[in-house]
Amino acid sequence: MTETTGKTALILGATGGAGYETAKALAARGWRIRAMHRDPQKVSALLPDAAWVPGDAMRQDDVVAAAVGCDVIFHGVNPPGYRDWAGRVLPMAEATIAAARRTGARIVLPGTVYNFGPDAFPLLREDDAQAPATRKGRIRVALEQRLHRAAKAEGVPVLILRAGDFFGPHVSGNSWFTSALVKAGRPVRSVLYPGRPDIGHAWAYLPDFAETVAQLVARDDLPRFARFHLGGHWFDRGVEIAERLRVVAGVPDAPIRRMPWALLPLLAPFSVTLRELREMRYLWQVPVRLDNAALVDLLGSEPHTPIDTALRHALQGMGCLPPAVTSDFAAA
């Protein structure tokens, strides 16, 4: 799909999965894409048609300068490896808010389920109370509260699109798909599943997420503060994604291993990422599903790639499956 919008989007976090796919989806609709990175020459080949500018998302002046003339600022920046959320998440948000306030651009934030605690499970709606059970969850709540104040008191348009765990052809290390299920650059020999097999779990295919963002920001009827939930791919039996993954990979009998949660306390002192992942275990012990009724009511339908196609593209993009290979088992 190609539309001529004449609009410009600044992508913060263009090297990450959500930012990269959103840039592609917007560009396909005729948006001009501007991407900010501390070392643009190092990463510019990733999105060769984007206008890359130097800058640090922690520096307000850099973000304000990069946002000049932009209609949307996609705030897809996260501390790598779940590190230093307390010291970086809110300062980066303040830089983006300052830029949006100066330019009138709408901020787009990928939302997480971390914001919610067990009182909101198993079905999450946009207006449910956010009572997180973790430190990272409290930081994400503070982030959304700050964006809400920016919209209501400072006139900054905001869109939050919340989704389950991301997977896709281009995904960063801040993902259970790459941190647990499979390893990038390696053929699938086994699958590591973090949750209880019979507990439901929600996943979001990044190109579907990005297409949803593109459809939403194209509308003129969004409220100043808009928040929607993406249903994504829901599995009543959470382990089904691992079962489908090995089928798509052409190894239907590959073992599905359980996450060694009991060992994480012993390994956590040596790995920040493992320590941070351990905090999110509760999301694998209960079903957590997102209610997308409001989104479907607005758009008519939710962008949704069939799961085997999505998994195949994800594995190919991660170098786990050759691009030319299509498993004979994929249609099973």
From TrEMBL:
Q: Tell me the ranges covered by the NAD(P)-binding domain, including all copies.
A: 13-121
Q: Which Pfam families match?
A: NAD_binding_10
What parts of the sequence cross the membrane?
Answer: none
| Protein name (database record) | NAD(P)H-binding protein
Q: Which organism is it from?
A: Psychromarinibacter halotolerans
